[in-house]
């Protein structure tokens, strides 16, 4: 996710391809940053959705691992599901992308949304949920700790 002059991108692309899974020029300068915001917006919703699904499964007396084994093979499957469901179930938050960093990113997203006129109601809500996690002492916990918030709520 890059933005900038086409010629500058073309010169830098061979170097970026050495370490990047996918390298693509999205547009002019700033487009890469905007694309990163899109990524964080999507992740926030995905992680909250996964936390709620696992919380629901737990409250319904289901085996969360079995539920994920099944639903991950369908439309609900995602990187977040494959890589974060176990940390949620096992209450392991000492890895990954910190809540403090996600709140910083979501703050940038929400501020930019105000400037551009974009409506981000779910992102704003999940940002508040991450604020709750910070109040629980989880600022340095992984973003999958949204599940801890749900467990605390009951």
TrEMBL record:
GO MF, one annotated term: NAD binding
Highest taxon in the source lineage: Bacteria
Gene3D superfamilies: N-(1-d-carboxylethyl)-l-norvaline Dehydrogenase, domain 2, NAD(P)-binding Rossmann-like Domain
InterPro entries referenced in this protein's UniProt entry, alphabetically: 6-PGluconate_DH-like_C_sf, 6PGD_dom2, HIBADH-like_NADP-bd
Domain 3-hydroxyisobutyrate dehydrogenase-like NAD-binding: 30-147
One Pfam family named in its UniProt record: NAD_binding_11
This protein's name: 3-hydroxyisobutyrate dehydrogenase-like NAD-binding domain-containing protein
Biological source species: Roseovarius mucosus DSM 17069
């Amino acid at each position: 996710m890059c933005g900038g002059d086409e010629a500058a991108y073309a010169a830098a692309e061979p170097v970026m391809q050495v370490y990047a899974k996918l390298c693509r020029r999205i547009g002019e300068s700033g487009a890469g940053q905007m694309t990163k915001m899109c990524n964080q917006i999507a992740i926030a919703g995905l992680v909250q959705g996964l936390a709620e699904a696992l919380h629901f499964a737990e409250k319904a007396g289901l085996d969360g691992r079995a539920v994920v084994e099944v639903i991950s093979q369908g439309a609900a499957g995602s990187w977040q599901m494959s890589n974060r469901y176990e940390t949620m179930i096992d209450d392991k938050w000492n890895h990954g992308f910190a809540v403090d960093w996600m709140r910083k990113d979501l703050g940038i997203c929400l501020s930019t949304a105000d400037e551009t006129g974009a409506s981000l109601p779910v992102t704003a809500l999940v940002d508040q949920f991450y604020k709750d996690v910070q109040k629980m002492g989880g600022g340095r916990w992984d973003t999958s700790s949204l599940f801890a918030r749900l467990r605390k709520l009951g």
